[in-house]
Structure formats: structure tokens, C-alpha cells
Design a protein that fits this description.
Length: 582
């Protein structure tokens, strides 16, 4: 499916004015303007992103009352159990709050549900078990619980004190817990609603430290803890793919530096296992592609508690052992994914009628429910259509499914009208999870595709848009100007690496297929007297197409600085290309 290039128009006078006021390159000024930072003040505020810009935790709905209850439990010597989710956000949220309470002498433990057996969020059996173990304890959820209305009702009936901290979407009814801590509660005036679970847990830890400190300030010892905890906050924020703007950007920006300078023993061991420990500086890619997958692997394969232990241990031998184990789990997860992806493609090939369908629902009894979400995303990208993968449990005669969208299709809105017959269903526009009777899968496939036709395809063929910050010439891409673009980082959701386009580009030499299995593309482009190298990951098939193209091309790309053996140069990450006449 060809991408639709969407250009941001620029007024040369405004570009020159902002460039002059900020004393920056026109390249940086164009990106700032394209993203809505159109004055010196708001552009400077965005570029600085300081921790001092974080909002007071007292503004976060429920945070103050939750901190008061936790302090009361600490003073009474009661046990406090942190109930976390099994993904990176949940693991880091648990770590932040556990370390905070442990440092002030709390009797604290944590509970992480098993992904395959207990599923996401608070579950009634776990709450009842915790109550049987100690009915006087305080349970604090992190990164989950805001939709657990029934479980909260059970806790209330048991007279079991439950605090829920979360950031996810909630339904029409809120859980009746002792306190709810959430940045978007009805009636909330909190200035930033996009915190992840770790961000909410960090704010709660901050409020606790304030109450235990000197007046309204945390003690010097706990201030140092909070500074170090920002590293875990950055991990959860990047891994949960929340928008990297506002408070999130400040937390990640500072957290990346903290990862390098003040990492916990476990994180240092994990960095060594991921072979990034000796990097000069860390980026969001190091979290997204090196650290987060290893932490996530524990949860995906049913051992998330080990990830919390890794992040909290002060035993060097145990840290090394756990880091190596998580590294092995990640490799195992990758092998499982490759097998599922191969089988998913085979299923589509075996059913030619599915290839023309607007969406895919694929199922198999040999698939692992912990990793099908990742594979669903890859299948959706490969076949360019919304995809749901279902791991069938033959003993229970049911399946656990995970879906990913394509081309801005609202997956949740598509499934909702045909959700009758599903055992459970939830999610959002881009990703969903469901449980389904095994004998209902074929009927659901038909209903899902029909719903796609009426709710999505009726609006015309789906389009994949590529937003371009500015059109430039290759001459604009100096090392200085490209390096200056790093001020816009850290990059991620809602703050992507700048994308530019250039026209009149020709091949300096024939493109090459590189990498294992020759999956990637390496190409050198020319414009006037300028030659520059570009790489496109997973796009080796472009090599033959480019060679067959006569005449100049138009390209879209993200420029980076590539350093190899002490030599640095500008390189392009090629995103898309077209013959010039197109």
C-alpha cells in the first residue's frame, strides 16, 4: 500500500525569525514550527524539558489521600503489598514504589499476576488469597485496576483496604476502592493526562517522600532516591509508548542520563547482557530495543516477578544470574515469535480468500498467548490489514486473542458491534485483547471482516500517511545541523524523529542488499555535488525497484549521525521513496 506524503507548509520569514531568535539552524526551526512550537518562549520551554517543570504530586487526583493512607499503614507497622502488572510499565511501577517504602523501613512485598493463568489487572482470586494471608494489610495497585469494578467490590465486601493507581482508560463505572489515583479522573484539573503507570507511581512515591521529609520537602536521602527512580520511570514511559511530550519528555530526558550514571545493580547487569553498558549515552532506542524486550520477556513467559527482583536486588551475583536468565528468556521469546509468524503467513497462503479480506483472524493451538500481540503487529504490517491472532487452549476449548490495527482503523470500535459471543474483550483504537470460545472463531472472523467493511472501508480505501516536517536539500544536512536536531529528543510516540523529504535525487551507485539473509537495503544517493549513504531496514526488495527506475527520485528520511571507528558522518534512515514524476 503506497504511503500518502503529508507536507507541512513553511513560511520562510517565520523560519528565519525563529532561527534567529533561538540561534539555531533553519532545519531545527522548521521542525519546531511544523510541530506547533511557533514562538521563542514555547520552543525554548519544549527544548529545555527540566525536572523542575514537573507538576506537584498534590495536583494528581487521589495522590495526596493515597500517600496519607500509606504513611498511616507504615506508622502502624502494617504490611503493604504492591500489586503490579506484568509488563515493563507494571514492573517499573512496582519497583519504584517498593524501593520507596523499603527505604523508609516499610514491611512491603509485591504481587505480579501470571499473564497466562491470571490475565491482566486485578483478579478476584488473588485479592481473596492476599486477604487470607493478612486481612490487615494494605494493597496498592500500580499500572492496573481502574477497570476492575468487580474485584474492587469484593475487596470492599471483605473490608480489605485497596488503593488503585492507574493510567489506563476507564469505563462508565469506576471501582469502589479506598482511593483512586489517576491523572484523568472525572473532574480532574491535572495539567498532564498522559502519564504512564510508572509516572503515576513516581508521583505517589514523591508525595510519600514529601510527607516523611522536612516540611513539604523530601529528606536529602529520599531526594536522591527520587532522582535515581526517574531511570525506572523512563523505562516504563518509553516501553508503554505513551506520548513523549510534557512531563513524560522531561522524565525520559532526565531518566536516560540517570540510566547511564546511577543505574541500579540489576539494570547494570541487564545492560551488560544487552551489550549496551559501555555506550557513551543512552537513547530511547536502547530502552525500546534492548532493555524493555528483556524485561517484557519475563512477563510474556510467565515469570514477571523475576524482573522486579532483578531491578531491586542488591546482590551482585543474583543480579548477574537474573540478567543472563532474562536475556535467555528474550532469545526464547524471539524464537517463539519467529515460529508463530511463519505459521501465520502459511495460514494466509493456505486460504487464498483471506488474502483479499479487509482483516485477518488467525488461530492455532500451538501458539503462545504471551507473544501473539507482537506477532499480530508484524502480520498486520506484512499483509497491510488489521490482524487478530488467537492462541487456542484445546483443554478449555477457548482461545486468547490479541489484535493490532493498520492504517488508522479503530480496532476497538470495529469489534465492539460484533463482540457478542466473545468471553471478554477490551483495548483501544490500536490494540485489543479478547477471549473467545474455540467454536466461535470462524463466525467471528466473518463478523469482524463485515464490521471492517461497514465501519472502516466504507470511508474509502485505508491510507497510511507519512507526515513530513519539511522539504530540504541534501546540502542542508550538515553534521552540525543534524546533531542540533537531537535537542528535540528523546524521540518516541508523539515526538518522532524529524522526517524530511528531498527531490531530484539520483543513485550514486547500485543499491545493495545487506545483513543476515540480505533483508536490509544500503544505498548511496547524489544531489548536485553531495553524496550521502542511506539505509532502509527490512526493505531489501527496494533494491531491484530502484535499479529499474529511470531518472531522479523523491525520498523521505530521518537523518542521523553515524559514528564508526571514531569517524562520524550524516546518514539517512530511508523511510519511503518514489520516482520523481510520481
Amino acid at each position: 500500500m503506497p504511503r500518502i506524503w503529508r507536507f507541512t507548509p513553511h513560511d520562510s520569514g517565520r523560519v528565519q525569525s525563529l532561527s534567529s531568535e533561538l540561534r539555531c539552524s533553519s532545519l531545527l526551526a522548521k521542525v519546531l514550527l511544523s510541530r506547533g512550537y511557533d514562538s521563542k518562549d514555547n520552543a525554548s520551554l519544549f527544548l529545555s524539558a527540566k525536572l523542575t517543570d514537573l507538576h506537584d504530586p498534590e495536583l494528581l487526583p487521589g495522590c495526596g489521600e493515597a500517600a496519607d493512607r500509606i504513611i498511616a499503614a507504615l506508622n502502624a507497622g502494617r504490611k503493604i503489598t504492591i500489586y503490579g502488572d506484568y509488563d515493563v510499565d507494571g514492573v517499573t511501577s512496582t519497583t519504584i514504589l517498593w524501593q520507596c517504602l523499603k527505604r523508609v523501613g516499610g514491611n512491603v512485598d509485591y504481587y505480579i499476576p501470571c499473564r497466562m493463568e491470571e490475565g491482566y489487572g486485578l483478579n478476584e482470586e488473588a485479592i481473596r488469597t492476599l486477604h487470607e494471608q493478612d486481612p490487615n494489610q494494605l494493597v496498592v495497585s500500580v499500572d492496573c485496576g481502574i477497570t476492575s469494578v468487580g474485584v474492587a467490590r469484593v475487596a470492599r465486601e471483605l473490608n480489605f483496604e485497596l488503593i488503585i493507581t492507574d493510567h489506563h482508560l476507564f469505563g462508565s463505572e469506576l471501582p469502589d476502592a479506598a482511593v483512586l489515583v489517576h491523572p484523568r479522573l472525572p473532574g480532574s484539573n491535572y495539567p498532564f493526562g498522559e502519564l504512564c503507570g510508572a509516572g503515576v507511581a513516581f508521583k505517589l512515591a514523591w508525595a510519600i517522600c514529601q510527607r516523611l521529609g522536612e516540611g513539604r520537602k523530601a529528606s536529602p536521602r529520599m531526594r536522591e532516591f527520587l532522582k535515581d527512580a526517574v531511570a525506572f520511570c523512563a523505562l516504563g514511559t518509553v516501553a508503554d509508548v505513551v506520548p513523549l511530550v510534557g512531563e513524560n519528555r522531561a522524565l525520559v530526558r532526565y531518566g536516560l542520563a540517570t540510566l547511564k550514571e546511577h543505574s541500579s545493580l540489576g539494570l547494570q547487569s541487564l545492560m551488560a547482557a544487552a551489550e549496551i553498558r559501555n555506550k557513551a549515552e543512552f537513547t530511547t532506542d536502547d530502552i525500546g530495543f534492548a532493555l524493555a524486550p528483556r524485561i517484557n520477556a519475563a512477563g510474556r513467559l510467565g515469570q514477571a516477578r523475576l524482573a522486579v527482583e532483578l531491578l531491586t536486588t542488591d546482590n551482585p551475583e543474583r543480579a548477574l544470574q537474573l540478567a543472563q536468565y532474562l536475556d535467555q528468556l528474550n532469545k526464547q521469546r524471539q524464537q517463539v515469535e519467529r515460529k508463530i509468524l511463519k505459521r501465520a503467513k502459511e495460514l494466509v497462503e493456505e486460504h487464498p480468500e483471506w488474502q483479499d479480506a479487509p482483516g485477518l483472524v488467525l488461530a492455532d493451538p500451538d501458539w503462545h498467548p504471551g507473544v501473539i500481540g507482537i506477532v499480530a503487529s508484524r502480520v498486520a504490517e506484512h499483509f497491510e490489514k488489521p490482524t487478530i491472532l488467537v492462541a487456542i487452549d484445546e483443554a478449555k476449548q477457548s482461545g486468547q486473542g490479541s489484535g493490532r490495527t493498520w492504517a488508522r482503523c479503530d480496532l476497538h470500535a470495529t469489534i465492539k458491534p460484533v463482540s457478542e459471543g466473545l468471553l471478554s474483550f477490551g483495548g483501544h483504537q490500536a490494540a485489543i485483547g479478547l477471549k473467545i470460545p474455540a467454536d466461535h472463531i470462524d463466525d467471528f472472523r466473518v463478523a469482524f471482516c463485515n464490521s471492517l467493511m461497514t465501519t472502516h472501508m466504507s470511508q474509502g480505501e485505508p491510507q497510511v500517511e507519512l507526515r513530513i516536517d519539511a522539504e530540504v536539500s541534501l546540502q542542508d544536512l550538515t553534521q552540525r545541523s543534524v546533531t542540533e536536531l537531537d535537542q528535540l529528543g528523546p524521540f518516541g510516540n508523539a515526538n518522532e524523529r524529524p522526517v524530511f523529504s528531498a527531490t531530484g535525487i539520483t543513485l550514486a551507485e547500485p543499491p545493495k542488499k545487506i545483513g543476515n539473509g540480505e533483508r536490509h537495503l544500503s544505498v548511496k544517493f547524489s544531489w548536485q555535488q553531495k553524496t550521502i549513504r542511506a539505509i532502509a531496514f527490512g526493505k531489501a526488495d527496494w533494491a531491484d525497484q530502484m535499479n529499474e527506475t529511470k531518472g531522479p527520485m523523491a525520498i523521505t528520511f530521518a537523518p542521523i549521525i553515524n559514528t564508526f571507528r571514531g569517524y562520524s558522518s550524516v546518514e539517512l534512515q530511508l523511510i519511503d521513496w518514489k520516482p520523481a514524476e510520481a
